[in-house]
Amino acid sequence: MRVGVLAVQGAVREHLEALRRIGVEAVPVRLPEEVAASDALIIPGGESTTIGKLMVRYGLLEPVKELARAGKPLLGTCAGMILMAKRIEAAGEDQPRLGLMDITVERNAYGRQVDSFEADLPVKGIDSGPVRGVFIRAPVIRSVGDGVEVLAMHDDRIVAALQGRLLALAFHPELTADPRLHRYFLSLAG
What we know:
This protein is an alpha/beta fold. It contains six helices and twelve strands.
């Protein structure tokens, strides 16, 4: 399996390393043809407006949408989750988005950089205990539509959800040594 990590901005290296530690062929993706050659794709955390604008500039929005329409797994962490959402609260007019998941997200829901934190989270579908969630200027999911399964909550806020083969996380699994969420993502390929 060849897993692409969208490499325009954000925690690219950390996702590549996390995937390689579990024996997966992981490649940085910067071009439309590299998206199309991927069996699964991760959109990392970073700054959602910047990532979105760079996706527009490099012609990556439609290829990523096509990958999702083809039924290939897509993981969005933090900023990636924001880009995958159909609705972004208080988004600027210039905020590009993929609009793939029937979720409404709020950017920076926990506050500024200084308000970043870590927490242990029970995640539906992950056995053998909670996972460590690293929240950095993290968004939350305010609401989900039909067909979206809530996988994890923190302080009564939705921080992980699944719709088909689309997985959205408000936190950063790539910043821990725990491979379970990356393995869970790969299991979506069936």
